[in-house]
Amino acid sequence: MRATLGKVKTPYLLLFPGFAFLFIFFILPIINLAQTSTQTPIAGGDTGQNEQTFAFSNYINAFIENREQFGRSFIYATLATIFALAIAYPLAYAIAFKSGKFKNILLVLVVAPFFTSFLLRTIAWKQILGEEGFVVPTLRNLNLMGQSTTITSTSIAVVAGMTYNFLPFMTLPLYASLERIDPRTIEASGDLYANAITTFRRVTLPLSLPGVVAGTLLTFIPAAGDYVNAAILGSPNTKMIGNVIESRYFKIVDYPTAAALSFTLMAAILILVTLYIRKAGTEELV
Amino acid sequence: MSTQLKSASIPTIPIKARLSRWFGRNLLRIYMVFGFTYLFIPVAYTFVFSFNDSGKSNLIWKGFTLDNWQNPCGAPQICNALGNSIKIGLLATIFSTILGTLIAFAIGRYHFKGRSSSNLLIFLPMATPEIVLGASLLSLFLVFKINPGFWPTVIAHVVFCISFVVVTVKARIASLDPRLEQAAMDLYANEVETFRRVTLPLVAPGIAGAALLAFSLSFDDFIITNFNSGTLITFPKFVYVAAARGIPAQANVIGSAMFFLALALVIAVQIVNRKKIR
């Protein structure tokens, strides 16, 4: 009797410390953020002093004022996700099926750039593609680029930077799901007279779908909230919603608007993610 | 006879067709070369410019020097920032690995009421953009009049590392062959012994991988750190602030050294694992 009771309790005991921590430092802050988002500044108070007035208009104002940056964040994040998928899928496929005994080494190499700080790598791209790097002057000398056109400070540079920085997040889940495919299913498809393209379309691709879903989520979510790539590689014309939230917090000290923007961003991402998971028809989240 | 025919027929294939066939066969390999080149260009650039005799701003190549490597702490504050990042990374790794592994065992091993909502709670921090995580935690600290700094940063890092630890360890637990544990039980090992002598050693590589992942996520984090660290400088913060006026070459030295260190560590782990399997 005691033994069974112990068994019933065990999972909850295991969960307790971690979930208590997440409750205090993840759930409570989100609730707190929701409260902040409907506050307004105290009349005559210092900057950063707010009172609860349930001003839901904060959301409408914040959204209307920053709809351009919102739109940009989702367009950039979508583009970066598509490019990352296009680059990572063949790479993951090659590592999983064509690399033989070098599999583990190649896998390590995918993660390896991670260990040089991503800020250093982003700054490196900025310098490689910048005015003083070697790419731009070369292209200009070859007349492949106008004298006044630049690569950095454009939306192209921001999307390229995000694509680069989130590539490992895309490659690893793709590899994990491709590697799990039983090679016999692919052989069987060939035995049944499917050509390479049909085999890929009808066997390999559907079986790797959980990896595609996980990879696109792990890329899209951080990309939509990112502001570092836009800050380093972009210009004021490429500001994303993350840049706005950051400056609302630190430069303007307008917590309610920052909170309303954060909440809108999170809600938008959660809705998109839910729709996407439904559409992709997979229950296996990550 | 047939081999003769084959060898005789090769020269008759036109060069063009042979080239295109070679490309068709090696397309993925060529693609891999391009992919890895793309991944490593900025790493190589960072490494090369760590030898630049640059003075304060490391923008243009001015000549080769070993000074930066001999004196990596030469730039003001840089080693202080590095030390903070390592301390925060180690603490965040220890806490998140312990908490996350416990959760992974609960979810991976037991069927209980609330299991799917537990999965959701683990997924949520990953589905929350870093900037929201960082900003919401900062608001909480401000409400309780806790000043941002070292411990708030450690706490913030544990929050986002836990989910990654759970996912990694859970995957390892799910891949275990249940027959191994049954065999231990059949050989009269009790539950505790089975766990200690069979389950845990089998899950250990997953836990080690999770810890490595947690450390690299924490060490490289900028956005959440920026919100919760106040005046404390970490290595990514140092780089970000310095970027405005050109980063010192010592930052490249530290970035490159971390790269080689981590690479050596990962390869060592691989070799040890392979020997164990044999």
Written description of the protein model:
The complex is a heterodimer of chains A (286) and B (278). Chain A has 286 residues and is mostly helical. Chain A has a single domain, classed as MetI-like (MetI-like fold), CATH 1.10.3720.10. Chain A is built from 13 helices and 2 strands. Chain A has a two-stranded antiparallel sheet. In chain A, strand 1 (39-41) and strand 2 (50-52) form a beta hairpin. In chain A, helix 8 (183-191) runs antiparallel to helix 9, helix 10 runs antiparallel to helix 13 and helix 12 packs antiparallel against helix 13 (255-280). Chain A is globular and about 80 Å long. Chain B is mainly alpha-helical and 278 residues long. Chain B folds into 2 domains: 13-69, no CATH class; 76-247, MetI-like fold (Orthogonal Bundle), CATH 1.10.3720. Chain B is built from 12 helices and no strands. Chains A and B meet through helix 1, helix 3, helix 4, helix 5 and helix 7 of A and helix 2, helix 4, helix 5, helix 6 and helix 7 of B.
